Amino acid sequence: MLAQPRVVIVGGGISGLATAHYLHRRLGDGVRLTLVEGGARLGGKISTEQFGGHLVDVGPDALMVRAPVVAALIEDLGVSDLVVAPAGSGARIWSRGKLRRLPAGTLFGIPDRLLPLMKSRLLSPLGLARAALDLVKAAPAGLPDDPTIAEIVRPRMGGQVFDRLVDPLLGGVHAGRADELSARSTAPDIDALARGNRSLYLGLRRRRRNAPPKPAGAGGAVLVTLRGGLARLIDALAVHVVGDDVRLGTAVVSVSRGTAGYEVKLSDGTVLEADAVVLATPAFAAADMVRKEAPDLAAALAGIPYVDVATICLAYPRSAVAHNLVGTGFLVPPEEGKLIVGCTWSSAKWPHLADDTTMIIRCMVGRRRDQRWMDLDEDTLVSQVHAELVEAMGLTGRPTEQHIERWLQAMPQYIVGHQGRLAAAEEALGRLPGLYLTGSAYRGVGLASCVADAERTADKLAQLLTDARPASEVPA
């Protein structure tokens, strides 16, 4: 291995910090690491604020511990004692004027049981009959190589299953529209079901029946958070880069090949020399950094679109909630035309946020092809969201506290062609040994996917450095 190789990680969010953590785990102190973050703090979209008498996440608020890499990271960082499992389970769908229970036994909204679907009253009798046709109807011919989720679900189960179940669930996760999202990239399980089974319904039942038990943490919970907010995870990761060169409030202008590896030019005029560089930033930011050195890579990255979103946290007197909330919140199908995309009843979902006087509710607005909220000032945005909550939940009072977090260009969209863009990026990276990409833009938007991708990136980088392939040997 190179004598203490120089590595620059660009981006101090979960992806950059996790990459640094795993790299130190693989190489110990045998690496000189510089982490460059353009913002004033570490954590990226993970942000925890004092709100409503509690520490509340105003970005992502949950970790998927069913992913083994996340469970292992929590243990490794020594924060297992902070893990909090949800107090309730089950989401609602706001459809046709009512909050309706999400049927049990669904995969991204695709049902494997008809009785819970009937009881939910999400579908009309005609919609139920159309969904049941999937049991006897021949599979549509000529599925595209990279179909949208709509191209899989609509022909098999009908428009109502797609519009009232699949679109709000998948669209809510991605802040997108499921008639544009690539099934291969956003829901590969659905893509595999469609290709391997005549019936989605029967294929899903068979899949569940044959699946081995999956390990989960926190007493079986799939999603958990940390007491004190997910900023505690960032704090624990930051401990592992204390001895490194961490530069906050400094942007990267460009990354290019030099005479001895890579040169990373910073906004303050500094040029860092590195044997390897990891770009743990949004794809559009990475594209700007490499545009001059690798225009083909920049073009592939710039082709990944993003959507602006906002989280609106509202604190209400407990007396304003007309009844006890059962479940974790609700999602809103795009066809309803509402501003709210999804709503979390934070005080009901997370035990550490529950108290006798205040109810904390988090709403998300913004999705692909719906950016109405962008032109609203804070008071108008809160008023419109509050009005929709009154309509959905019957609230009888106004919020006593509010916090809006606007996340511009926050959510990457895995629209049709995403795999092709990744393939083009990988081909370009093949000509740039020692340059790596990681983050939510590529192989999963959730925190668990970011952590898993960071570990893979660190493994590849550690192997490169161990094999003693100095960046000075990179062909000019």
Describe the structure in your own words.
This protein is an alpha+beta fold and 476 residues long. It is built from 16 helices and 22 strands. It has a seven-stranded mixed sheet with strand order 8-7-18-19-20-17-21. It has a five-stranded parallel sheet with strand order 12-2-1-16-22, covered by helices on one side. Strands 5-11-6 form a three-stranded antiparallel sheet. Helix 11 (283-290) packs antiparallel against helix 12. The longest helix is centred in the C-terminal third of the chain and has 20 residues, at 447-466. The protein is globular and about 70 Å long. Residues 469-476 have low confidence and may be disordered.
SSE layout:
Layout: E1 6-10, H1 14-27, E2 32-37, E3 48-51, E4 54-57, E5 63-64, H2 68-77, E6 83-84, E7 91-95, E8 98-101, E9 106-107, E10 110-111, H3 114-120, H4 125-132, H5 149-157, H6 159-174, H7 183-186, H8 188-196, H9 200-210, E11 223-226, H10 231-239, E12 245-248, E13 252-258, E14 261-266, E15 271-274, E16 276-279, H11 283-290, H12 295-302, E17 306-317, E18 329-331, E19 340-344, H13 346-349, E20 358-365, H14 378-393, E21 401-412, H15 418-429, E22 435-437, H16 447-466
Parallel strand pairs: 1-2, 1-16, 2-12, 7-18, 16-22
Antiparallel strand pairs: 3-4, 5-11, 6-11, 7-8, 9-10, 13-14, 14-15, 17-20, 17-21, 18-19, 19-20
Helix pairs in contact: 1-16, 5-6, 11-12, 12-15
